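Q: Got one fold?
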Amino acid sequence: MNRRITKSTMLVALLGLSSQLFAQDVPPPPPGRFGKQSLRTWSIGAHGGILSQNTFLGGGSVKAEEFKSIGYGAFVKKQILPALGLQADFLRGEIKTLNQTSTIEQKNSINWSGSLTAVLNIANFSLNTENAVLIPYVKAGAGYMSSDSEVASTQAFTDREGWFIPTGVGFKLGVAKGINIDLGYDINFIKSSPTVKSAYNESRFSYAHAGLEFALGNKENSQLQNYSAVADLRKQSAEESAELRRALSTAEQNAQRDREQYAKDLGDDDNDGVANKFDKCPGTPSGTVVDGSGCPIKVQREIIKETKVITEEDRKVVRDAISNLEFDLGKSTIRSKSYATLNRVAGLLVDKNFSLKLAGHTDNTGSRELNLRLSKERAESVKAYLVSQGANASRIEATGYGPDQPIATNKTAAGRQQNRRVEFTLY
């Protein structure tokens, strides 16, 4: 009764392990570069080989009859870690040998056996690919078996059951993604009744075998025990490097186009004192008096008076305009609240025939090229507005210095605010 319970318990445990094969989750979509890898952890296999009473630990010399002692079986494996897996093995076969007199044949039949072993991968030789080509391993565990024994034509015992300890060494060869050749040598130690032990020479038998292992799951994913993270990282890093080089090349081409456009926008092809970007009437004849948009002035409003000395009141008009000057964020568009004080500056230029230098400045936030462009555009925008109010364009100079002439530190918000300015210089 106890034997039947033990046998049933062993079979239920092994079947429970293998049944998990059919409860695997649907594989997730492939990960992006450097993302979490989806790897196959379940595998099945079949093997066949030579059963022998003799082992390399001793037990006598190998006899020709032993090469007729064929064993075969199958296994289900769950890989828990890259170097550790749990394997359920099933084995049966016959062990033929001669007794000590070498005259009487003895045959031990393994009706069935089931074992659960821990398989430890010693190394993973990947040869610069993400799937290993050579994996040596060792294994050990516990098993339960049923066997018969026959000496000459006499039945020694039938269907004797008992425990055994399977151990082994071997290596796997990766022949394809998810397919391995499994070559191994097992020594099984009998832990059963004295009757069964006596049937096996020194209570152990060996099994030299070869077989195939097939990984289960998405064929696009690597097998966990074969996966080489270092090789895969090297591959993904090379792809990332190539992508970055392509992006850098594209960025350089865009920057070159921006530089060419910048030079074209801020040039003055018709020499009328208005940059091309603000010039709504390009190609005006040389010497034509134009307004802030570069178009000819139909009614000339310019009043030329004798130049006067710059007074403190004149400087106050300029200071008020500077302190009240605001632009839209990151643009050269003047806000309407600045028009009143700029109108006073325009009137000052008309009434007293002053010349004016406009110098645009920025902080060091962003690229120097962008800051140079923005400072120049803001100075030109102020010039265009003053000319639209009647000022003489030829008496106004607009220059952009970008971040090159700070008046305060760029390490604080207050300092950067002071550096973002347009300076007015009367002369």
The helical segments are 2-19, 194-199, 229-265, 312-323, 339-352, 368-388, 413-419. DSSP finds seven helices and eleven strands in the chain. Residues 147 and 159 are 5 Å apart (CA to CA).
